[in-house]
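User: Please fill in residues for this 459-position structure.
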């Protein structure tokens, strides 16, 4: 083993590590860079090795250099974020951990620093916050009272008992500033409720900011939510996070069950005492932000599966809205269908009157895994393609007509024609309604396709 880990092999191994490694001796002279560190710093290592750290990095001082500090104190410094301009003029952000190196007797002989490059993560978080900021400020400038929360309780359609109860609770929620936790499957209208609560509250003229917590690494989301403060050795800028932008208003945290566990205590703290500390900051910031969180898995399940911390769950679960799936409130389907027909009559300049009884029966039987969104998309899709007074069986996509009992009554010819029509629609859709290209996909002459389009009265 010893012969395997000789110096050459070790250096070769360290060069493959995707983190920067710097080593200095106890006098602060640079001893080693691995390849990655060389890349981050854009330093010519041949020129740098053997020289004093402060000579190669003039922006550092004895006090601000983590390597020199560790040599002085003998204590590791963990996970410090630093932003600096490297020798190529690139702005680089890293997260560094620095450890003393000791000999067998325990005397400090140097220090090693490991740097993870998070430049891109940081850039992304800055962009997201900038965009949210611009969005909010532009809306405000346009002199309209409109804000980013566009819906009100009037836009939430539903007479089902559970829905009426939810609207009542929602209105009550608007009177308070307590946290709200909304659970509902995808497309059930969670966002609608969030907007409606903000708009019915005293905060309606204050910012409404929404942030999805899914798929963002802890570090990125932390910067987005809480901001960063000038720190590290060279100019990390002061950046406001969404909590500061949302001050006085409402912050909607969507998919809270996907918020990294590490970050959840920080959110809990804001909920408890309205204050937080930005990344790299030394002082707390106090804000007045109303939090609404949403999840599309049952929150209790999220707690059980260690996605949501129990303490955070209890703190969020002060006002709770559970929105039922569409298949659990079938009585609202006719109402919603007619509402969307009206909406798209206006939008698409059509005059559809309704759906046939037969179609309504199918809509009531459908499982609606995409909930209200799926119903809305279905109606918009049909109304964009057909010019018709009534939505009939033949206008429904194939998967709806496959429902048992409906196909059974049809002749083979009808079924084949239905399939043909669906294939044509698909090809037209795929090609942006280019008949020549669609005919190519279907492998039929253009004229034949044209004939079939008029036969099936496809628009
Ligand atoms: N009760 C409702 N009345 C009118 N429209 C509704 C209703 N519920 C949902 N919608 C419409 O359905 C679509 C989806 O709603 P929304 O975005 O609120 O769902 P969501 O629960 O946030 O879904 P996801 O979990 O996928 O984000 C929107 O276009 C919305 O306008
Ligand atoms: Mg949503």
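Assistant: Residues filled in for all 459 positions:
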């Amino acid at each position: 083993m010893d012969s395997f880990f000789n110096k050459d092999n070790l250096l070769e191994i360290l060069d493959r590590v995707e983190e920067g490694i710097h080593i200095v001796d106890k006098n602060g002279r640079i001893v080693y860079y691995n390849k990655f560190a060389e890349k981050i710093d854009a330093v010519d290592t041949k020129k740098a090795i053997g020289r004093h750290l402060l000579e190669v990095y003039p922006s550092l001082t004895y006090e601000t250099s983590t390597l020199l500090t560790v040599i002085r104190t003998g204590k590791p410094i963990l996970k410090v974020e630093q932003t600096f301009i490297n020798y190529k003029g690139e702005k680089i952000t890293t997260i560094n951990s620095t450890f003393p190196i000791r000999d067998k007797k325990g005397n400090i002989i140097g220090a090693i620093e490991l740097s993870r490059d998070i430049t891109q993560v940081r850039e992304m978080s800055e962009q997201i916050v900038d965009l949210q900021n611009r969005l909010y400020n532009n809306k405000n400038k346009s002199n309209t009272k409109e804000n980013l929360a566009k819906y009100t309780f009037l836009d939430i359609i539903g007479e089902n008992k559970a829905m009426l109860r939810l609207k009542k609770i929602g209105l009550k929620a608007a009177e308070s500033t307590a946290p709200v936790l909304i659970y509902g499957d995808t497309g059930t209208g969670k966002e609608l409720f969030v907007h409606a609560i903000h708009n019915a509250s005293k905060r309606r003229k204050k910012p409404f900011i929404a942030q999805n917590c899914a798929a963002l690494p802890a570090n990125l989301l932390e910067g987005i939510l809480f901001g960063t403060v000038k720190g590290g050795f060279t100019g990390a800028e002061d950046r406001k996070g969404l909590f500061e932008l949302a001050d006085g208003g409402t912050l909607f945290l969507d998919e809270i069950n996907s918020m990294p566990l590490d970050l959840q205590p920080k959110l809990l703290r804001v909920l408890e005492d309205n204050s937080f500390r930005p990344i790299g900051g030394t002082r707390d910031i106090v804000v007045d932000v109303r939090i609404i969180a949403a999840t599309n898995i049952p929150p209790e399940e999220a707690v059980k599966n260690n996605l949501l911390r129990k303490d955070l769950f209890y703190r969020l679960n002060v006002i709770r809205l559970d929105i039922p799936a569409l298949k659990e409130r079938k009585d609202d389907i006719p109402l919603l269908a007619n509402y969307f027909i009206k909406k798209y009559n206006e939008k698409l300049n059509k005059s559809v009157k309704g759906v046939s009884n037969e179609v309504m029966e199918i809509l009531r039987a459908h499982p609606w895994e995409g909930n209200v969104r799926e119903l809305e998309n279905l109606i918009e899709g049909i109304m964009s393609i057909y010019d018709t007074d009534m939505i009939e069986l033949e206008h429904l996509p194939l998967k709806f007509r496959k429902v048992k009992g409906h196909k059974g009554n049809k002749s083979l010819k009808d079924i084949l024609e239905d399939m043909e029509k669906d294939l044509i629609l698909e090809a037209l859709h795929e090609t942006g309604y280019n008949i020549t290209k669609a005919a190519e996909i279907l492998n039929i002459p253009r004229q034949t396709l044209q004939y079939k389009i008029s036969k099936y009265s496809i628009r």
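For context: The chain has four domains: 7-117, 121-324, 330-407, 410-459.
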